[in-house]
Amino acid sequence: MRRRIAPILLTLVVVVLGITALTARPEREAPGRTADFVVLVGVAGLRWEDVDPQGTPTLWRMAQDGSIGSLSVRSAHRPTCPVDGWLTLGAGSYAAWNGSREAGACPPAAVTVEQPDGIGANLPDQESVVLHNQERLPWGTVPGALSESVRCSVAVGPGAAVAAARPFGRVDRYAPALPADPTGLLGSCVLSIVDLGAVAGEDPAARAAAARAADTRLARVLAARPPRSLVLVAGVSDTAAPSRLHVAVADGPGWERGWLTSASTGREGYLQLVDLAPTALTALGRPMPERLFVGRPADSVGGRSADLAAAIAEPADADRESAAQRRVADWFFTLLAGAQVLLAVAVLPLLRRARRHAGPYGPEPVSRRVVAVVELLLVAAALAIPAALLADVVPWWRGEHAGGYFAGVTVVLLAAATAVVRFAPGYAGTLGPLGAVAGLTTLTVGVDVLTGARLQFNGVVGYSALEGGRYAGLGTVGLGAFLAGALLSAGWLAQRVRRSWRPPVMVAVGGAAVLVVGSPYLGADPIGAIALTAGLSVAAAISAGGWLTVSRLAWAVMAGLALTIGFAVLDLRRPAVERGSLGRFLAAVGDGTGGLTVHRSSTANFETLVNSPLTVLALAGALLVWFALLQPWGGLKRLFGIYPAMRAAMAGTAVAAVTGGVLGGDALDVAGAAAALVVPMAALAALRVLDHSTDRTLPDAGRQRDDGPGGRAGGGSDGDAGGGGRDGDGPDRPAPSGAGAQAVRTPDPGAGRAAAAAPPAPRAPGPAGGPDGPPAATVAGARPATGRASTEVTSA
């Protein structure tokens, strides 16, 4: 009866933990109306390094009194050229101007602005731009959605005309240049959009001159601003590749001396370009359009330094870090993939020769020193991602040779972490290194998430603000490393307890990981939490031994579906602007626009699959496991037979990593990050299991039972007999190591002769073997017992 109820209870526990993590949201007061007029001022290419009290005194004073932040100018085109930035600003969603452009370049856009009546204007190309964004791009963006949400809008300059044009091309009020006194113009409509030019190039003198000219025009705008108005100044786009972070300043009632933030970023001091349109409508107290903006209204939060120079140094430093991160991340993951592939090739001959033959004939075993060195290299390979994450504790990006500094810091940290594992208690055990590496990885990523994910943000193995996809919580690489570390740690702990306690241990450790991944306060990754729940359900189902039967798989699937459905129902009950990604997708399915989300996800999966070095890691790891480790000579089947909880943990990791990557649009990136940890540790554990594959079990004189030919010796006091099952190593498999005595690698000759002369007797059940060497009483070279014993052990 208890066995029938246990899966149900464990499934309920996993589902409750997951729904609790996903639905608990921080209390956030929704921004309200704060102004009667909104003036959006754009300067393409303006960065924080261009702002100083001498060259841009107007913007400096505005930043001193208002709220500031870094602006990510992601659009539907990379890089975001000025015309794309203005179009995205007016659409409130990712947009791009139509027409062919050279990749990575921003040629001057020929925007035709007609003025038939001298009051407004007309963009004859607007209808084709709308069709391009609706039919050719995956976001279903409606250019001009911002202007459609207000009765009247003003545009000053050609870029502003692109942002203010309604979907059919009409601009309500238009001036090709800023008048000497724009008071009447800015006060004629509740929404004004002003183009102050661009700050382009990398020449410091040219940039300073362009910023000074824009600042002079900004002074005229501030002098003519209507009463009770909100003025937003933004560097609306890049001017060339690569992308950078740009200026965002808000000045008006309720925006005094703070950091800008929004629900779309979830991080203080950061906004997206798509946040500006909903911010303007919210400040005016106007309703959002029926098809919601991708962005969310901005807000001002405290905590900013009173010293503006110190405050501005933070976003400027973040811009430098994000630029360096993009350059370094590419070669880091390429080198990591190459190193792991080479290490996998080096491990193959060791696996072939790791089995020590009991007889006088056989291949010469590999030198112990060579094996020890390869084991250390495997440990270092598995710790590469945690070491690279910790490298961001040191500001390596501030140096002239940022890549070299990062490499030096990472190597030092990697050597230190490898030494910690090498000299940790239990390193000599089969699962000792695996448990230590998994624990270190889980601890490193988990502590970073608990402290605000500061190391992952703009980090080499984290995520970049320039990409505009994530600003807080767990990133793609962090998710793969964390779920692999958490499940392996859970399996390592579960293997050390009685069989009946293993599923609860897996659920306890894995459930805590689900909370960390899914909580909006922490990991903020609902898709990752759902994927981890599915993997955890599989791991818990087979952690006590046996195969993944149809019934166990059904419980795992039911747990994942129950969590998904429960979260979806609660998410749909929230207001539309507060829904998560799952709730927004289901709402889109309801109104017939869900195909756009599916198209975006499939496009993202394909692009990531063919462009990411992590794909190589995932595929190389899968090939090594399938064509080497799972072969009769590879040792992994023997490892799984002796340690079923580790088999469960690795199976759960595979399910969670693949599910999380595909559903999240990351293809095999999550699986690649997980494989960087799991595959080296699986190879190391397989080497150690094969090293003891020819050990033989001594009879236990204390407790004997005549099993007879084909009988079965007990494998543990908690009913572990047969729990390990066959290890799948073919006819060369020894009688599996049971429990009850101590492993002896080099027995005394006299003792060996005495043992050989003694009549064979089956082992009696006893406690599990220790962590060092084989998991049972063995003597190298002894004949196997006639009876078959359980190979399972309960400690690493």
Q: How would you summarize what this structure contains?
A:
With 796 residues, the chain is α/β, with parallel strands linked by helices.
The fraction of residues assigned to DSSP E strands is 5-15%
Uncertain stretches of 5 or more adjacent residues? 700-796
Biggest sheet: strands side by side, in what order? 6-4-7-1-8-9-2-11
Mean pLDDT: 80
The major sheet is characterized as:
8 strands, mixed
Class per helix and strand makeup: alpha/beta
Structure report:
This protein is of the alpha/beta class. 48% of the residues lie in helices and 8% in strands. It contains 25 helices and 16 strands. It has an eight-stranded mixed beta sheet with strand order 6-4-7-1-8-9-2-11, sandwiched between helices. A two-stranded antiparallel ribbon has the order 3-5. Helix 10 runs parallel beside helix 24 and helix 15 (476-494) packs parallel to helix 24. The model is unreliable at 700-796 (pLDDT under 50).
